[in-house]
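dumping this here before i forget
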Amino acid sequence: MVNNKNKLLLLGIGVLLIASYHLAIKKTFQSRTELKALENESKIYYNIPNKLNLLSQKNNYFDSILAKMDFNDTSIQNNLIRTINQESNKYNIKVMDFNQPHIFPNSSSTEYTYNFNLEGDFTDILKVLYGLEIKGNFGDIIHLNFEKKKDYKTSKNHLTVNVLLQQLK
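structure:
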């Protein structure tokens, strides 16, 4: 009889342990894992005001750069022509030809290749091209073809260059 009472007592304790696990301890573990997930999520959202402030500062910086470069809401081609004219006037270079851009769509971007001809002194041409590529941020000069031509009417030589400027959008 004592043996049966001990078995029933152990069985009762086992049933109580299982019941207490399902009623109290299991919910505590679930709440703890949910708390950890929410803490991790709050760490992600904690830095948002700082990131927003940093992005706002970057936006202001880039706007100031665009304002310095004097870009209006016109097309890149018009801005390129205007910049070429400004630089060529500064260095006494003649713009002989400016053709429509060649547009080549890629899978992820579009390539615009601008073709134009300049005439003038070698160092002045290089200064104009430097101003276009570095200061103007219009793209990369991918090809230059210099030609020395003679004007038979005046018996003078002059230098012309065919420029290919490529821009990725």
